[in-house]
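# step 3/5: fold
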Amino acid sequence: MPAVEIEKLTTQVRLVAHKFGEPRDFIVALRSLFEDYADLTFRINSMRRPSVVLPEYHLSPVILRTLEKELGRYCEDNPLASLDVIDLLWKEPRREPRILAAALLGKIPLSHSQAVITRLLSWSAVTEEYALAKTIVGSASLNLRTEAPEEWIGVLSNWLNSRSDIEISLGLTGLIPLIQDRSFVDIPRVFDLLTPHLDRIDPHELTTLQSIIESLARRTPKETVFVLKQIAGNSRDANLFRLLRRCLPEFPEEQRISLRYALAKGSQLAG
């Protein structure tokens, strides 16, 4: 990808940011910036990753970080106008504008939390990439997650208790950044929200469930193994045992041995 000169990029980003108050002009300027830094060679000569559905500019990460930093102030000061820009970003056909939209949505003040939640739901409903969905939830929930964790937990709880597959999927995905956020300490609440979805595993959610358990294994391995052994001890679900075996490498040796023994015992009973 083209080399990035930070001073030049900062100037270009500020020029684009000056058009933030005119959403359509801003989008045109942003496209031009992205095209200047796009890796055309990658787009033409490389095979696209199978998990990536949307076309990409293949930008250096520093470009999106610089844009997020510069534009974040506008979102905090002018949330309603910023939501108009965010909506246009989401309608762009390439992946990077949507990632930027999610990052800026995460800068919207808590006073507009319902607007954030509404967009999280509608965006996730049409997002086919798991990696992009995870990015959307992680970025767009930033203010809610860090400044009002109880409100965010409430949102996740509502989604996880919903009959909507989309809302359940979004709720499970939303647990991952919460677990990874070291400032969030109420991990028992995460176990409470997760347990029903391990008791009755939806095969379509195996990838997300694996990410959740692996994140818990890295964050709090002893408590995670304790909970998982209880669940496995009461289960005869082969999907659960397969899922937990996949997660074993993420645990420290002591917890890995303990969980492996419990899974072997549970599999025998299930058989």
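# step 4/5: annotate
The chain has 16 helices and no strands.
# step 5/5: archive (pending)
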